[in-house]
Design goal:
Number of domains: 3
Number of strands: 8
Strand content: 5-15%
Shape: globular
Low-confidence stretches: none
Subcellular location: Cytoplasm
Family: Belongs to the TmcAL family.
Keywords: ATP-binding, Cytoplasm, Ligase, Nucleotide-binding, RNA-binding, Transferase, tRNA processing, tRNA-binding
GO molecular function: ATP binding; ligase activity, forming carbon-nitrogen bonds; transferase activity; tRNA binding
Oligomer: single chain
GO biological process, one term: tRNA modification
Mean pLDDT: 93
Helix content: 40-55%
Length: 399
């Protein structure tokens, strides 16, 4: 059986994701579609809108055959490490290809860009270093250096676009792994990442859907943008928890943690750098809402996304010391499967490159224990006491 992979968050699963999943399977000619999906906290430093089991249910109903959890250490990391984690897991599962959505819509510009930067790696890194010294954020420094290298030459990937950037990192990760896995891209359709929802279309970004919901648009009113299974899963999740994940919901606990730790304690958490712990502490003392807090802290150098990743690690207690111990994913956590996915695992069992874990009780290393802890903190943020959900939730089966 031939498998292709995708790296996703499904926050929540919408019609654009359905297009990506369907197109990935068609374009790759694969029999099985495998999704590596972030768990309870996401790459842009946010609690997931719905937990990983609700999002797994959405994915399986839409035709995904295997859902594998991307460990917290990679799901909440900067783009290069996020990509490394996802591609490592897809490679371990024997995927022949991976498929990402992009603004570019064609793979050749990415391959040209990769070759350019590989050939001129030393110069590129020096240019990034010089740009960072001017006070710009690291992502802006990357883009500035890349733009200078490319110049007016056509045929390269536009790495100012968010999905193009992530796609480039997937390719870079596969090359660094010396993996035979082949990249495929499809044209991203409809809304861009930050776009609000628009009437007259069935495609909206996950950000737009969440924003509309928190501005008092009902799940029923948003159903035009999502498959029916997603709507039903969200309704069940809301009935179980009484709310959806957001920093507004989690902020009282985050604020308490910041004030308890004080600057000296904040400094130990992953991604906290360059004295920003003082600003974080001062903002927590004075700002009653998360939005006011984040506006106080973010800046040209420290983007909202970067600050939110710091806050995620402060909230979960993930330290620099822990981060530095993780070199690569150590297991494959199975969240759900279809009949085809189960058949694929049975056929591939001797060739799978990492331990396949179906129960949380088997997550006995530090990376796995961190995932269990992240679920506890996520449930606490929702105001629920279901701390043992990791242990009581077997993989979902969609037959």
């Amino acid at each position: 059986m031939k498998a292709t992979g995708i790296i996703v968050e499904y926050n929540p699963f919408h019609n654009g994701h359905l297009h990506h999943a369907t197109s990935a399977k068609e374009k790759s000619g694969a029999d099985v579609l495998i999704a590596v999906m972030s768990g309870q906290f996401l790459q842009r430093g946010e609690p997931a809108f719905a937990d990983k089991w609700a999002r797994t249910e959405m994915a399986l109903a839409a035709g995904i055959d295997l859902v594998i959890e991307l460990p917290y250490a990679y799901a909440t990391a900067q783009a290069s490490d996020f990509a490394k984690g996802g591609i490592t897991l897809l490679d371990a599962l024997g995927c022949e290809s991976f498929c990402f959505g992009s603004e570019q819509g064609a793979i050749e510009p990415f391959l040209r860009s990769y070759k350019l930067l590989a050939d001129r790696r030393g110069q590129y890194e020096q240019m990034i270093h010089e740009a960072v010294k001017t006070g710009v954020s690291y992502p802006m420094a990357l883009n500035k250096a890349y733009t200078e290298l490319v110049g007016e030459t056509e045929g390269f990937a536009d790495l100012k676009q968010p999905n193009n950037i992530l796609g480039f990192h997937y390719i870079d990760a596969a090359k660094k792994l010396n993996s035979p896995i082949q990249p495929i891209t499809i044209q991203r359709i409809g809304a861009n990442f930050h776009d609000p929802i628009r009437s007259g279309t069935a495609i909206a970004s996950a950000t737009g859907i969440r924003k509309a919901f928190f501005e008092d648009t009902s799940i029923e009113e948003l159903s035009v943008y999502m498959p029916e299974a997603s709507v039903l899963a969200l309704k069940r999740f809301a009935e179980e928890t009484g709310s959806f994940g957001s920093w507004n919901r989690f902020y009282p606990l985050l604020r308490y943690t910041i004030l308890r730790e004080r600057p000296d304690g904040i400094r130990k958490f992953a991604e906290v750098t360059e004295g920003i712990e003082n600003l974080i502490y001062d903002a927590a003392k004075t700002e009653d809402t998360f939005e006011n807090f984040i506006v106080r802290v973010k800046s040209k150098r420290f983007t909202r996304t970067r600050v939110q990743r710091m806050l995620t690690h402060i909230y979960t207690g993930f330290t620099w010391e822990q981060l530095r111990t993780f070199q690569t994913p150590t297991y494959l956590r199975l969240l759900g499967m279809s009949a085809a996915g189960r058949n694929y695992l049975n056929r591939q069992k001797k060739n799978i490159g990492l331990p396949l874990i179906s129960r949380a009780a088997s997550l006995d290393d530090s990376m796995g224990k961190l995932d269990i802890h992240a679920t506890s903190m996520y449930m606490l943020g929702l105001g629920k006491t279901a701390m043992k959900k990791e242990y009581t939730s077997p993989p979902l089966y969609f037959g």
